Amino acid sequence: MRRPLIAIALLSVVATSLQAQPAQPAFDHRDFDSLLNIHVRAGLVHYDAFANAPAFRRYLDRLDAFDPSALSRTEQLAFWINAYNAYTIALIVAHDERVSIRNINRTLGLSLKGPWRERLVRVGGKRYSLDDVEHRIIRPIFREPRVHFALVCAALGCPPLRSEAYRGDLLDAQLDDQARHFLLMTPMSNRVDASARRVVLSPIFDWFREDFGGSPDAIGRFVARYFPPGSERSLLESGRFVLTFSEYDWRLNAQRK
Questions:
Q1: Average pLDDT of span 86-94
Q2: Contact in structure between 222 and 14 (CB atoms under 8 Å)
């Protein structure tokens, strides 16, 4: 499970890097963009194709060789989102897992280290875990709640993986599109029953409720901005609803043969 962590030293280093150097041109995500376009359909991933693609290995090598600290803030966020998603795919590929990401690093039924603590992420010659990237860099540095609709943990309960890489110049529109799609087009995870005054949301809104304002009222107002005018949006804006959370589907987001 993706969960919050605190690392003041790493947070300070990364935060300082945002202002340390003049902004440089955007990192080239074209290899990853092409792979996503070809091998991701409706959010489902062809993991075997990624495993066999030289362009995927080349992209990971380029992430390892690149220091993103000189990028603009927006390009940095796009960079780290892409790195998280790419290395999540790499994790599944490395362990040849095709059932659930939660099976990775599980011994005798116990997840002692778990998939998110494995330090397989390599950026700028440094090693990170997926937890490091999400909870020690992306969330505390950028404070952008919409990243929860862009970071995909290889499960069907996640927001669907986008069939394109994130780009700094398109990031705001991409994050809005991800949020809107997840909230309006995945009724197994998110649904609003205006007549019953009941709102059911993904556990993401429970696990990271502070990122969405903390209270059910604040969460409702956040979600409301993605609904068209009508009874559902009015209910969300009112705060007068019962909020519950759906069951998270941890099955792998893999294309089925």
A1: 98
A2: no
